[in-house]
Design a protein that fits this description.
It comes from Novosphingobium decolorationis. Keywords: DNA-binding, Transcription, Transcription regulation. By secondary structure, the protein is of the alpha+beta class. Helix content is 38%, strand content 20%. It folds into 2 domains: 41 residues, Winged helix-like DNA-binding domain superfamily/Winged helix DNA-binding domain (Arc Repressor Mutant, subunit A); 82 residues, Alpha-Beta Plaits (2-Layer Sandwich), CATH 3.30.70.920.
């Protein structure tokens, strides 16, 4: 679906604050509230806006450590892939997982309380998934730009 300038302004405003009242979004888009409301509904119906959720502060929830875990499977059979992906879906500390190109099969974003907790997640959970051959972890020292907003240009 092609987005026009008004749609982009609406989306930019909602990315700033999804709870922003329609009247305030309308100000950002330089439109009145009624067409903005219709456009938001259309963006939702078209799946451009997939939902609304709060952005939680992991540190306030006791989750101080971010890590990326690179995982290789021992074989790329359908059974291994399905088993791995199912186990990843069930792990609350895995907040994202991507199949990737290159030397590794998956890039898994893990959040943990501390290094010891990451070790438990890695050794007692991820490495024990049948079909996982090896795991490499990268600990995030500092987040320079959090992945919250999509480019709209």
């Amino acid at each position: 679906m092609p987005l026009d300038e008004f749609d982009r302004k609406i989306l930019a405003a909602l990315q700033e604050d999804a709870r922003m009242p329609v009247a305030q979004v309308a100000e950002h888009a330089a439109l009145s509230a009624t067409p903005v409301s219709r456009r938001i509904r259309k963006l939702e119906e078209d799946g451009v806006i997939r939902g609304y959720q709060p952005v939680l502060d992991p540190r306030k929830l006791g989750l101080e450590l971010n890590a990326y875990v690179l995982i290789n499977l021992d074989a790329h059979s359908d059974v291994n892939i399905e088993r791995f992906e199912s186990a990843i879906q069930d792990n609350a500390y895995v907040i994202a997982c991507h199949a990737v190109t290159g030397d590794m099969d998956y890039l898994v974003h893990v959040i943990a309380r501390d290094v010891e907790h990451l070790s438990q997640i890695t050794l007692k959970s991820l490495l024990r998934i049948p079909g996982v051959r090896d795991v490499k972890s990268i600990i995030v020292l500092e987040t320079i730009k959090p992945p919250l907003k999509l480019p709209l240009g």
